[in-house]
Design a protein that fits this description.
Rossmann fold, 174 residues, globular, alpha/beta, 7 helices, 5 strands, binds shikimate-3-phosphate, 53% helix
């Protein structure tokens, strides 16, 4: 496999990996994959069903196995799940076969977005809205050592057009 094959977007739930992944793939003329969608297709179950039936360990194994199926696929932009870099050797693996970009996002913004999207995210099912921001801050802190292994770390800034320009510039420098 060639190095720098894929571009992996990583970061906490709600940071915009899927949105920016699609925009970036279009700009670079590459296919786009959402890892959660690949997992759901492969297993024939939704992410929530996998968590309910197989637990988080079952989901993480499936996530790892599905990630590895990308090894021999043509270069693409991939939106990973928020926890993908934090299990097995996924982060090292992604760094070895592509460019990783961490979309670092303020917890206030994540909480604002995730407040309305908890249903599809099993890890948030039991977190009430009052505790949501604190939960996010703790989880991001716990995951930061993995996220910060990314080749490129980008702070989400306004305006978004400038943020995207910054992303493209940093990719061209890798
Ligand atoms: C998870 C994030 C989700 C999904 C699963 C677990 C996590 O993906 O993979 O619910 O551990 O942060 P998104 O980041 O796309 O929401």
């Amino acid at each position: 496999m060639q190095t720098r094959q894929h571009i992996f977007l990583i970061g906490f739930m709600g940071c915009g990996k899927t949105y920016w992944g699609q925009v970036l793939a279009k700009k670079l003329g590459l296919p786009f994959h959402d890892l959660d969608d690949l997992i759901a297709t492969r297993s024939g179950k939704s992410i929530a069903e996998i968590f309910t039936e197989d637990g988080e360990p079952g989901f993480r194994q499936l996530e790892h196995d599905t990630l590895q199926t990308l090894a021999d696929s043509p270069p693409s932009v991939i939106a990973t799940g928020g926890g993908t870099p934090c299990f097995f050797d996924n982060m090292e693996w992604m760094n070895a076969c592509g460019t990783t970009i961490y979309l670092s996002t303020p917890s206030t913004l994540l909480a604002e977005r995730l407040r309305h999207e908890k249903e599809i995210r099993p890890l948030l099912h039991l977190v009430n809205n009052v505790d949501l921001q604190r939960f996010i801050e703790n989880k991001v802190k716990e995951r930061a050592p993995f996220y910060l292994k990314a080749n490129i770390v980008l702070e989400q800034i306004e305006p978004l057009s400038q943020f995207f320009e910054q992303m493209c510039k940093r990719i061209s420098e890798v």
